[in-house]
């Protein structure tokens, strides 16, 4: 049939731009290098453009690419989790977008179609969706089979808006987001420009900042405080700006078993996540946000790409009630409201662990450099950290919903339905054996490998019991254990 | 669920579970020995240089102690590891219990298995042993390994479990 389409790619000249722009500053040498790069790079870019082809068939997306090594990639339609459309500023001015085809089980985005027109991007998504609709009998009811091309999300008929961020709220969310990360970026960019220190000093001395300068020169303490305040202010403001750029016009809507989100000021990104692919919900807050009742809500899906984390935020910034009610619409569970404590021995274990780590770091350093012993002043901080961690640790299970609360300064509430669990672990180290405690971990698809949702340091018998209960409920969910054969066949995965 | 009369609890006591094939002790011993041999050789080269230069206070003390340590490790670690390794394939799940320092119990529900491998390296081949590797969609458990099975046992296990693999486990 005519399902096989060879699709052209506009925006060829856009690809050349990076090559033309690279190193247009400075001396003749860089110019020569730029010319050499251009001479070599240009044919490659042309070849890359000519060699890049993609087709969409009812079964799969086929991408052919590569100049020196040719890559043929086939992505089965039913394995596609999400089709993201990302428009960065420059491509946006040329009316093009990037399409990310996200699949399960890979650490990176598998299919990247760059420099397609926005119209084409929306069409690709629509085509993929309609093919998925045809293949899955569950989705076929009520799905429009025609391939419609539309650029505006609001105009869609069957969708309902779940959450929308007003400009005020976007700014507010930035106010609460404090990250030292941006400071590092700012300072590293400053280093690129290499401001002439003498010139800066001249400018300061000549200007009206005279009293400040003399005060700074007189008191190092004042200078340090000023530096900290300025750094904090810069990071605060840059955090707000980054947030505005990221979440401007954020909108989350749901239609036909999928959530769809769209946001961004300079870079507009759009993403769709099928509800059936959601594995768990993650609610986050920090002490300041919590004080004023603000939370964020994220979804856990397959695909472990770290860069995609932010695309998994369903509600970047909302009140506790908003996150709870939207959570209920996304995933058929009620978020747990009460959590049980783990064993108090966890405080002791954390203190021992951190103290040992500190000793290992400090003692060799102190051997050569005595003042390193001052690091031992951190010991009370360790105690405080361990107590705070214990207070935030909690778990709950009501027969269906497993909830785990974690975090020392930040609060993370992770909840999933028992039928989403995959492998069950019970773990006991030497130290834990001494105190009769165990760590329970239920592995889920797409769980973060770094901050995994495990219930650390439960009393051993409670852990055993919970493990039995969890696994029992898991088995119970999938039906009677006696007729295992027929059950396995007729199971329709949720 | 928890019905003592019908089914035993999931976390059964150690004695009810199957141990690995005893030959695995030798396989592990050889592997640890080979790994430590590299370290020994490195230490030996350094100390030979010192010895030739005449800067060594006590000749070959480091490589000697590394050698001693590796012999001890190659003898005792496999034995301990073997002693604590237990597995059992039940009609609903694969149950594992293992670990010298960190004791870990694992329940892999059969319906969660994505695919299965039986692998055998060159040392295992000498002893007719193999590993059963169970792949699931869980992040940490993308491959759950049962080592040290007689190769025909591993293959039987694989063929038994294969029937349980579902089309789409997510």
Description:
The complex is a heterodimer of chains A (about 500) and B (about 170). By secondary structure, chain A is α+β, with helices and mostly antiparallel strands. Among the domains of chain A are: about 170-245, no CATH class; about 345-390, no CATH class. Chain A is built from 16 helices and 19 strands. In chain A, the strands form four sheets. In chain A, strands 6-5-4-10-9-8-7 form a seven-stranded antiparallel sheet, sandwiched between helices. A six-stranded antiparallel sheet of chain A has the order 13-12-11-16-15-14. A three-stranded antiparallel sheet of chain A has the order 1-2-3. In chain A, α5 packs antiparallel against α9. Chain A is globular. The two termini of chain A are about 30 Å apart. Chain B has helices at about 25-55, 60-85, 120-125, 150-160, and strands spanning about 20, 85-90, 95-100, 105-110, 115-120, 130-135, 145-150. The longest helix of chain B has 30 residues, at about 25-55. Chain B is α+β, with helices and mostly antiparallel strands and about 170 residues long. In chain B, β2 (about 85-90) and β3 form a beta hairpin. In chain B, α1 runs antiparallel to α2 (about 60-85). Chains A and B meet through β17, β18 and α15 of A and β4 of B.
Topology:
The complex is a heterodimer of chains A (494) and B (170).
Chain A: H1 12-21, H2 28-51, E1 53-56, E2 60-65, E3 71-76, E4 80-87, H3 89-93, E5 96-103, E6 111-117, H4 118-135, E7 160-164, H5 167-176, H6 181-193, H7 197-206, H8 210-218, H9 220-247, E8 251-255, E9 258-263, E10 268-274, E11 280-285, H10 287-291, E12 294-300, E13 313-319, H11 320-330, H12 345-368, H13 379-392, E14 394-397, E15 401-406, E16 411-417, E17 421-428, H14 430-435, E18 437-444, E19 454-459, H15 460-477, H16 484-490
Antiparallel strand pairs in A: 1-2, 2-3, 4-5, 4-10, 5-6, 7-8, 8-9, 9-10, 11-12, 11-16, 12-13, 14-15, 15-16, 17-18, 18-19
Chain B: E1 18-19, H1 24-53, H2 61-84, E2 86-89, E3 93-98, E4 103-109, E5 113-119, H3 122-126, E6 129-136, E7 144-150, H4 151-162
Antiparallel strand pairs in B: 1-2, 2-3, 3-4, 5-6, 6-7
Helix pairs in contact in B: 1-2
